[in-house]
Amino acid sequence: MWNVARGRSLNWLNGVANKQYIERIQMVIAQLHGCDSKHVESVSVHEVFQGKTVWDGVVEVFDLLGHPKAKRAYGWSHPEGPDDKGERFVTVLELPPVISPKTAVQVSILNDIKNCKT
Predict the structure, then answer these.
(1) In the chain, count of helices (H) and strands (E)?
(2) How confident is residue 40, by pLDDT bands cut at 50, 70 and 90?
(3) Cα 38 from Cα 47, distance rounded (Å)
(4) Please, what is the Cα angle at 38 between 36 and 43, to 5 degrees?
(5) What are the residue ranges spanned by the domains of the chain?
(6) Per-residue model confidence as pLDDT tens digits over 42-64
(7) Cα separation of 92 and 29, whole Å?
Protein backbone atom coordinates (compact mmCIF):
# COMPACT_ATOMS: atom_id res chain seq x y z
CA MET A 1 0.00 0.00 0.00
CA TRP A 2 2.86 2.41 0.80
CA ASN A 3 4.34 2.02 -2.68
CA VAL A 4 1.04 2.76 -4.38
CA ALA A 5 0.43 5.90 -2.33
CA ARG A 6 4.04 6.98 -2.76
CA GLY A 7 3.83 6.39 -6.52
CA ARG A 8 0.71 8.52 -6.75
CA SER A 9 2.37 11.30 -4.79
CA LEU A 10 5.42 11.23 -7.03
CA ASN A 11 3.24 11.26 -10.15
CA TRP A 12 1.25 14.19 -8.77
CA LEU A 13 4.46 16.08 -7.93
CA ASN A 14 5.84 15.36 -11.40
CA GLY A 15 2.59 16.68 -12.89
CA VAL A 16 2.84 19.88 -10.83
CA ALA A 17 6.50 20.35 -11.76
CA ASN A 18 5.72 19.74 -15.44
CA LYS A 19 2.85 22.26 -15.35
CA GLN A 20 5.18 24.86 -13.84
CA TYR A 21 7.82 24.07 -16.47
CA ILE A 22 5.26 24.50 -19.27
CA GLU A 23 4.09 27.80 -17.74
CA ARG A 24 7.70 29.06 -17.58
CA ILE A 25 8.18 28.32 -21.28
CA GLN A 26 4.89 30.08 -22.01
CA MET A 27 6.17 33.16 -20.17
CA VAL A 28 9.31 33.12 -22.33
CA ILE A 29 7.18 32.84 -25.48
CA ALA A 30 5.08 35.80 -24.33
CA GLN A 31 8.17 37.90 -23.55
CA LEU A 32 10.12 37.05 -26.71
CA HIS A 33 7.34 36.74 -29.25
CA GLY A 34 4.60 38.97 -27.82
CA CYS A 35 1.74 36.47 -27.81
CA ASP A 36 -0.01 33.92 -25.67
CA SER A 37 0.28 30.19 -26.27
CA LYS A 38 -1.47 26.92 -25.58
CA HIS A 39 0.49 23.75 -24.82
CA VAL A 40 -0.28 21.01 -27.36
CA GLU A 41 2.11 18.14 -26.63
CA SER A 42 5.56 16.99 -25.51
CA VAL A 43 7.75 15.31 -28.14
CA SER A 44 10.99 13.39 -27.58
CA VAL A 45 13.76 14.39 -29.99
CA HIS A 46 17.08 12.61 -30.39
CA GLU A 47 19.50 14.36 -32.75
CA VAL A 48 22.62 12.53 -33.94
CA PHE A 49 25.51 13.99 -35.93
CA GLN A 50 28.33 11.84 -37.29
CA GLY A 51 27.23 8.95 -35.10
CA LYS A 52 27.20 10.96 -31.86
CA THR A 53 24.24 12.28 -29.89
CA VAL A 54 24.28 16.07 -30.02
CA TRP A 55 20.85 16.58 -28.43
CA ASP A 56 18.45 14.30 -26.60
CA GLY A 57 15.43 15.71 -24.83
CA VAL A 58 11.80 16.69 -24.85
CA VAL A 59 10.48 19.56 -26.95
CA GLU A 60 7.27 21.24 -25.82
CA VAL A 61 4.90 22.17 -28.64
CA PHE A 62 2.66 25.24 -28.39
CA ASP A 63 -0.05 26.75 -30.57
CA LEU A 64 0.41 30.51 -30.71
CA LEU A 65 -2.48 32.88 -30.12
CA GLY A 66 -2.24 36.15 -32.00
CA HIS A 67 1.25 35.94 -33.51
CA PRO A 68 1.35 37.77 -36.87
CA LYS A 69 3.43 35.15 -38.73
CA ALA A 70 3.72 31.85 -36.84
CA LYS A 71 0.96 29.51 -35.71
CA ARG A 72 3.21 27.30 -33.58
CA ALA A 73 6.32 27.46 -31.39
CA TYR A 74 8.65 24.90 -29.84
CA GLY A 75 10.36 25.30 -26.50
CA TRP A 76 12.66 23.61 -24.01
CA SER A 77 15.30 24.42 -21.45
CA HIS A 78 18.70 23.10 -20.55
CA PRO A 79 21.30 23.70 -17.83
CA GLU A 80 23.76 26.51 -18.42
CA GLY A 81 26.44 28.49 -16.64
CA PRO A 82 28.99 27.57 -14.01
CA ASP A 83 28.47 23.97 -12.92
CA ASP A 84 25.24 23.95 -14.98
CA LYS A 85 23.42 25.67 -12.09
CA GLY A 86 21.59 28.10 -14.38
CA GLU A 87 18.84 27.38 -16.87
CA ARG A 88 18.55 28.55 -20.47
CA PHE A 89 15.17 28.58 -22.18
CA VAL A 90 15.00 28.14 -25.94
CA THR A 91 11.95 28.95 -28.06
CA VAL A 92 11.77 28.54 -31.82
CA LEU A 93 8.92 29.73 -34.01
CA GLU A 94 7.51 27.40 -36.65
CA LEU A 95 8.63 29.42 -39.66
CA PRO A 96 10.50 27.85 -42.59
CA PRO A 97 12.76 25.94 -42.40
CA VAL A 98 11.29 24.96 -39.00
CA ILE A 99 8.36 22.60 -39.54
CA SER A 100 8.59 20.21 -36.55
CA PRO A 101 10.13 19.73 -33.10
CA LYS A 102 13.11 17.99 -34.77
CA THR A 103 13.80 20.85 -37.17
CA ALA A 104 13.42 23.35 -34.30
CA VAL A 105 16.23 21.53 -32.47
CA GLN A 106 18.36 21.39 -35.61
CA VAL A 107 17.96 25.13 -36.26
CA SER A 108 18.75 25.91 -32.62
CA ILE A 109 21.94 23.80 -32.76
CA LEU A 110 23.04 25.49 -35.99
CA ASN A 111 22.34 28.90 -34.48
CA ASP A 112 24.42 28.06 -31.39
CA ILE A 113 27.30 26.85 -33.59
CA LYS A 114 27.13 30.02 -35.69
CA ASN A 115 27.13 32.21 -32.56
CA CYS A 116 30.16 30.37 -31.15
CA LYS A 117 32.19 31.07 -34.28
CA THR A 118 31.53 34.82 -34.27
Answers:
(1) 2, 4
(2) very high
(3) 25
(4) 130
(5) 2-117
(6) 999 999 989 999 999 999 999 99
(7) 9
- Rg over alpha carbons for the chain, rounded to the nearest Å, is 16
Nearby residues of 73 by Cβ (< 8 Å), 6 or more positions away: 29, 33, 37, 61, 62, 64, 67, 91, 92, 93, 94
Helices (DSSP H) in 1-118: which residue ranges? Answer: 2-33, 101-117
Q: How far apart are CA 64 and CA 1, in angstroms?
A: 43
Each residue of 42-53: b (16+ CB within 10 Å) or e?
ebebeeeeeeee
The number of residues making up the chain comes to: 118
pLDDT in tens, 95-114: 999 999 999 999 999 988 88
Contacts of 57 (CB under 8 A, 6+ apart): 44, 45, 76, 78
Q: For 68, phi and psi rounded to 5 degrees?
A: -70, -25
DSSP classification of residue 94: -
